[in-house]
Records
---
Amino acid sequence: MPQSVFKLESLLETHEQPFMVIGADLHVLAVNQAWETAFGIAREVQVGRPCCEQQGACRHQRLFQTLEPYGGIFEVDGRKDKKLLNVRGYPLLDADGRLYLGESQSLLHKRGDEVHQSGMVGKSEPFLRLKTQLQQAAAIQAPVLLLGETGTGKELAAEFIHRHSQHAQGEFVIADCTVFGEDLFESELFGHEKGAFTGAASGKKGLFELADNGTLFLDEIGELPVSQQAKLLRALESGQFRRVGGTVTLKANVRVLCATHRNLADMVRQGRFREDLFYRLSVFPIEIPPLRERKQDIPILVEHFLKQFGPLKGQHLTIGREGLIKLIQHGWPGNIRELKNCLHLATGLCAGAIIQPQDIHFMRMIGEQTGSLAMEDVDLQQAPAGNGGNMSTLEQYEASFIGSLIKKYQGNRKLIAAEMNISERTLYRKLNRLNLN
Ligand SMILES: Nc1ncnc2c1ncn2[C@@H]1O[C@H](COP(=O)(O)OP(=O)(O)OP(=O)(O)O)[C@@H](O)[C@H]1O
């Protein structure tokens, strides 16, 4: 494996979704730990295998030809059974300009016994209020709209409601609305019959059917194209739908939960979200507070994540007092996901069994808030004393990666942003931060 890809592997580990890197020869180059856990296959077995059964006539092959990122729902073979995945593929370039394919593969549905067992952790006032609301939501049937910034735990909250509801024995099906373009939405949600459109070689159940007697979680509902919103509303109101190309009306007993990081009420005012669907979905709105407003949860979250990451190092990990203070002083724009990723990286960088300040690196963002909680409000009792040191390679790595794209595209930001699959605005911020302007 080329040296630069080897370095990428440590970045893969900060990815909480199953993630795979495929080479231009259509063989698997790397997978992360989340992938091993989701599929029950060790990386030693998977690395070096062909990318998929239809190798050569597959989505991976197409990406190497077109360089176009893709998204959608695909069926793949797991160790025990076939699994439905929400897939996103991106072209990746290493520092030497070599092209790879990175694919995130999140499981679309989880049976009761697969649903997150580790649960939600927290003990702050805002967290306990949230938990009470989630318990109330689980006890009734009303549609729930989970609101909150990215990484605050909306998906985990939806799982919590599912697990504590009367639908707990059914499936928990996750539909990521960001992958449904105009064409995909109807066939993915309601299914299609054989021959319904070009490429429909066989009939397929939709997510509504898969979630029968369970819960359908529509994540990022604010991203659903307006043209598709009426179709969703119709199905929610009648509880009935038809597969694309089908003549039979189907019914499914589904609890629907939605989440968004957007202000849907504003979107309604701007005509980007249907008012009738907004009222239908937001009967019980639940706001998930950002981490900066519940910093009292940081010590217990740190302990929780270090318990998960310790075994990766074969060690019981703790954090030094200075390290914990550094975490508490940060604003956490990426919320709990950012904290988790930060600790994952710190686990890798930490030389001993105690995480030190120099092991902790933040992704900096412009306009970041620091939070209003005073240090003395946070219980530091559990933190042992720490010591010092230095280092940071993550930003250098990012800078050299972007530098190679600047060279490749002669500074054309549109093309660079497209290749990195980020907005031009985000690229602009990164360039400023990394002094690449
Ligand atoms: N209270 C919590 N206790 C433990 N882990 C948590 C908690 N809240 C969130 N997490 C973890 O943080 C990560 C992000 O959570 P989640 O995916 O639910 O956020 P989200 O709000 O749905 O994010 P996005 O809007 O970007 O999809 C996950 O790994 C989740 O397990």
---
Amino acid sequence: MLYHVRMDVHPPHGIDPALFDRLKAEEKARAQALQREGKWVHLWRIAGQYANISVFDVESHDALHDILSTLPLFPFMEISVTPLARHPSAISTK
Ligand SMILES: O=C(O)CC1=CCC(=O)O1
């Protein structure tokens, strides 16, 4: 199942910069592992914003929730999820 996901990152004021750098490094490692597994199929920066648009390909809503809620930056992100269904005019099967 495909999901369009928007993540807006809101680092708390006053967070220790070293801690936040560590969380960002952990987030990057996790994101790249999920990309290699084929679960995080697109990851795009929204130009001019500390936010991304992503597409996930996972087996269920629960699987997506497990991934998103265990991301290192999850406590500092506002996340919106849109489940995607096939469009009848789409040629692509993916
Ligand atoms: O910087 C972001 O958009 C948050 C994020 C998600 C995956 C990643 O590596 O950073």
